[in-house]
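Ticket #4471: structure export looks truncated?
Reporter: QA, pipeline team
Priority: medium

Steps to reproduce: submit the single chain below to the structure queue and open the exported record.
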Amino acid sequence: MSTEPTSIEGSVTSPTSIDSENSGVGASSQANVTTGKRKATPQRSEVWSHFTKIINSEGASKAKCNYCQKEFCCDVKKNGTGSLKYHIGSCKKNPSNVVDPSQGQLVLPRKGVEGGEGHLSTWRFDQEACRKGLAQMIVIDELPFKFVESEGFKKFMFVACPRFHIPSRTTMTRDVYQLYLDERVKIKQLLRSSCSRVCLTTDTWTSLQRVNYLCITAHFIDNDWKLNKKILNFCPISSHKGESIGMVIEKCLLNWGIDKLFTVTVDNASSNDVAIGYLRKKFNPRGGLVQNGKYLHMRCMAHIVNLIVVEGLKEMNKSVERVRGLLDMWNSTYLMLDTAQNFERAFERFEEQDTNFRAELERGEGWPSVNDWTNVRDLRDFLEHFYEVTLRISGTSYVTSNNFFDELSEIDILLRDAQLNSNFDFNVMAIKMKEKYDKYWGDIDKMNLLMFVACVLDPRQKLKYLEFALSEMSSSEKASEMMQKLKESLYELFDEYKPSLHSTCSQSSVSTHVSLGEPQQKMKRRMQALYKKRELEICGEDKTSELDKYLAEANEEFVEDFDILLWWKVNSPRFPTLSKMARDVLAIPVSTVASESAFSTGGRVLDQYRSSLTPKIVQALVCTQDWIRKSSSQEDIKKIEEQIQELDKIENDSSWNASEPTLNS
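Actual output as written to the record:
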C-alpha cells in the first residue's frame, strides 16, 4: 500500500502530533517533557521559496523543485543547500531562466570594451558567458576568489542582472583554471601557425611562500608581422643551478611543441651560462638552432647598463653622499637625486623648524652646501641619459633589437664626453664606467653579433650607418676588422635561410604539359615559370642575392614614427628570404624585463592575504592575465618604470658582483 509524500511547512514534525485541544499549561509541560524536543526552527535559506520539503515513501527528507518537480536530498545533518542553489540557476522551467532565443536586446559597445566601438549588436542573457566574463574580471583586475561571495558584489549583481546565478569561490577557481586551459590552446595554435622562430626571456623569483618560480616568456613575430609576447610558464623550480634551469626550459618548450629556438635573453647570473650550454647541447641534434646555437646566448642589456652605472656611483663624491643622507630610503640614486633637487628650499625650511635635523646630519657626511646641490644637479642630468636608455630598451610592445647599436653608441659618446669634463669627480666616475663598458662591449668577439645584424636589417641604417658609427667609436683599423667579421656573419646567416638547391630546382623544373581541365590562373603561372626558365637558359642565373639588392638600395629617412615591421611586411614580396631572417632577428628582446615584470604581477597575486594559493593556480592567474589583458602604451611604460626601480636595488645588493658573467660563452 503506497503512501503519499507528506508536505512539511518549516520542518519535519512527528507523525503523532500533540492534541491541540490540550492547551493547559500542565498539559503543555507534560508534552514537552515527554517528547524532549525543542521548538522547530524555521527555514531561513532563500532556496525554500523555490522548493517544497517532503518526506518520501522511504521516510527520507527530500526537497522537491516547485517548477520541474525534481527531488533532491536535504537532510539537515548530511546535506547542504549548495545543490539546490545551483539547480535554481539551471532549472529550465524556472521562469527566471526562460530565455526567448528569437528576441535580443540591441546594445552599442562603449569605448574600451571588447567588441569594438560604434558597432551595434544584440545581447541575450547567457549564464555561461557571464561566468566566463566574471572569471576574466577576476584575472585581469587581480581580485581574490572570495570577491564573488562579498555582500556588495551580490547586491550589485541583483540590481544589474538578477537572473545571473553567482558561483561560489570554489566554482570560480575552476572557471579561472578552465579559462587558462582554453587560452593556452589558442596560444598553441598561434605558435603552430607562425613560421618564425621563438626567442625567450627567463628569470627566477622567490615568493612570500619561499617558493622559487621560473618565468619563461616567448617573443615572436606572427604571419601578420605583429610582435607577440606570451608568458609560457610561471612554474616552481627546485634549484637555481644552471642545469636545473635548462631542464625546466627544455620541458616547457616540449610541452608547448616549440622546436625552433633562436635566442635566450638572460641576466648576468653565472648559472645562466650553464643553462644556455645545456639547451645548446639538447637542441642542436634536433636541428632547432641557427648556426649550431652560435647566437643562442643573449645578455640582458638593461643589466649591463645598470652594472656600468653602479661602477661609476662607487666613486660618488661627498656632495651626493650628503644629499643621500637627507633621503636615505631611496634605492634608486637617479630617482633620489631627481626628487631631492626639487626640495632644496624645503630642507632649509625644515632646518629652521627642527634644529636637531642639521645637527644629526653634521654627525654623518655633513650638511649639503650650495656647491653640493650644483654637483647633484649635474650628476642627475648625467644619469638621466642612462635612465632613459634603460626605459627604451625595456619595452615589450615594440621592436628593440634594431636600436641596440644606436643605444650602445649613445652610451659611448656620453662616457667619452664625461671624461673631458672639467669636474675631477666626473672624470674619475667616467673612467670607471668606461672600463666596465669595455669589459662587456669593447670586444666584438664577446658580443652577440645578431644585434649588429638587427641594425643592418633596419632600412634606415644598414651597413653604411654601421660602418660610419664604428669608425667614429674606434680606430679605423679596429672598425675595419669589426666590419669584416660582421659581414661574414651576416652572409653566413643569410645562406642558412636561403632555400636549398633541391627545392629551388624542383620549383623551376615545370612540366610543359597542361591538362584541359586545369584552371586558367594555374595555366598562367605555368607560362610565367616557363618564361623564367627560358630567361635563365639564355642570360644565365642572376648572381645578385636578395641581401645584396637590399644593401644596394638607398637608406630610408630617419623619422620618429618609423614602423620597421610595417616596412618589412610591405617589402616581404621583394625580399622573401631576407624577410624571414628579419622576422626572427627583429623579435629578439634585448632585456629580460618582459619576464621580470611578471614577478610584479606574481607579487600582487601572492600577497600576504593570498599566500595559500597553489603554484598551479598562480601560474594560471599570471599567464592568463598576460594573454587576455590588452595593455596600452602608457601601462607598458608604467610597468617598465616599476621594473627599473627593482633593477636599481642591485646597487645595495652585495651579492650582485659575484653573479657577473664570465664572458666565456
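Status: closed, not a bug. The export was complete when the record was re-opened. Leaving a note from the reviewer for reference: The two ends are 89 Å apart (CA to CA).
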